[in-house]
Amino acid sequence: MNLSNLKPATGSIKSKKRIGRGTGSGRGGTSTRGHKGAGSRSGNSTKIGFEGGQMPLQRRLPKVGFKNPNRVEYVGINLDVLQALVERFNLTSIDFEALKAHGLVSKNDLVKILGRGELKAKLEVKAHAFSATAQKQIEAAGGSIVKL
After folding, report:
1. CB 126 within 8 A of CB 96
2. Mean of the per-residue pLDDT values for the chain?
3. Structural contact between residues 62 and 93, judged by C-beta atoms closer than 8 angstroms
4. Strand, helix or coil at 37?
5. Contact 27, 19 (CB under 8 A)
6. How far apart are CA 146 and CA 126, in angstroms?
7. For residue 49, what are the contacts with CB-CB under 8 A and spacing of at least 6?
């Protein structure tokens, strides 16, 4: 086998229907459009979702839910994750750049520190938001918080 004699598998490629090329082709005359009616005329296009007069699916289903356009989405990072970072990399302060460098957040994220786990290290933590329990634990361990 070489590249000069490659070809598709037999039967995998079909020629397209040549429509409107005379009666002898078997597809002349009405050109597969049927007789009369809107669908046979030029310029015909049905709107998206039209089901031939049946109530369309998007109108049969009920309206549901609400999306708040002003919602602020935070990436939650727990204290046990911060403790693991401190133990592994000997950090004294944790800010957005440190979290980004270790792959915990991406550049457009907002960070919220959450209170799961235990923090033993004295840390200066900089984040966009803190839960009440996280704030208490950080300050109880002798650390400080800075809201960005």
Report:
1. yes
2. 93
3. no
4. coil
5. yes
6. 5
7. 56, 57, 58
